Amino acid sequence: GEVVEGVGLYVPKKFVDEDGNVIKETTEESEQCVASLRYLTLIRKGAEEAGLREDWIQLLYSFDHYVTPADVRSKTDTWIEEFHCDVNRKDNVWTVEHLAKHDGSDPELFPAHVAVMEYVVKIAPNAWIFSSWKGHCITRRNLLHFNGKSIDSNDIRWNEPGFRPLPVARTDEEKEYLMQNLEKLLHPGGTIIARLKECLEDQEGCVDAK
User: Fold this and answer.
1) 3-state class of 115 per DSSP?
2) What are 94's strand-pairing partners?
3) 42: phi > 0 → left, psi -120 to 50 → alpha, else beta; which?
4) Other Cβ atoms closer than 10 A to 182
5) CA 77, CA 144: separation in Å to the nearest integer?
6) Angle at 33 between CA 28 and CA 36, to 5 degrees
7) Which of 22, 106, 142, 153 is most buried, most CB within 10 Å of its CB?
8) Element housing 193 (H / E)
9) What phi and psi values does residue 108 have, to the nearest 5 degrees?
10) What phi and psi, each to the nearest 5 degrees, are found at residue 90?
């Protein structure tokens, strides 16, 4: 997969230069090898459901999970604020039908865009993302993933029954996971260009799409 600075993984992170050459690779002892909260939660729940000894379960709960670095989150917050202050962008509202056209299949007419929470993000031309994300609101997909449920079996596309209402994060942990996925889109060069009409409506913030 692509290396995005500031994104924590449970495998050693490789640092690369602009040409893709590995500069260094972290070791198991490195602080860069911190598991995500999602991954740790799945391991902990599995251990509890399997009836492992209490000391093993307590050991799992003693591990720290990845926390978004302050500088990464600060940049994200700045970009969100800039969007809301930009007279050329802040009132832009897309429908999910319009978003679905932007799946990257025609990079000239319909470059890849992705929505997470209320934000529609134009993906940077050279950024790698999952093909299943393109032209899609991934909020439901992200929440399914965070909670250890089958994505392929439970994700719903805009033109399929059950798509509405769009789900919202119910816990601080879910909200943080959605923010981290927004950061995966923004930090490799993505740009917030609009808000998603259906998301706003389902959160009782109804507006007219343009």
Assistant:
1) strand
2) 196
3) alpha
4) 24
5) 25
6) 145
7) 142
8) strand 191-196
9) -80, -50
10) -60, -25
Q: Is 191 helix (H, G, I), strand (E, B) or coil?
A: strand
Separation CA 114–CA 135 (nearest Å): 5
Q: What is the pLDDT along the chain (210 residues), one digit of tens a residue?
A: 444 555 443 344 555 455 555 555 544 444 457 888 888 888 998 999 999 999 999 999 998 888 899 999 999 999 999 999 999 999 999 999 999 999 999 999 999 999 999 999 999 999 999 999 999 999 999 999 999 999 989 999 999 999 999 999 999 999 999 999 999 999 999 999 999 999 999 986 434 433
Q: What is the Cα–Cα distance from 98 to 138, expressed in whole angstroms?
A: 15
2: helix, strand or coil:
coil
194, containing H or E segment: strand 191-196
Q: For residue 76, give Cα distances in angstroms to 38, 70, 194, 197, 205.
A: 21, 10, 16, 22, 22
Phi, psi of 24 (to 5 degrees): -160, 160
Closest to 116 measured CA to CA, from 48, 168, 159: 168
Rounded Cα gap, residues 195 and 4, in angstroms: 24
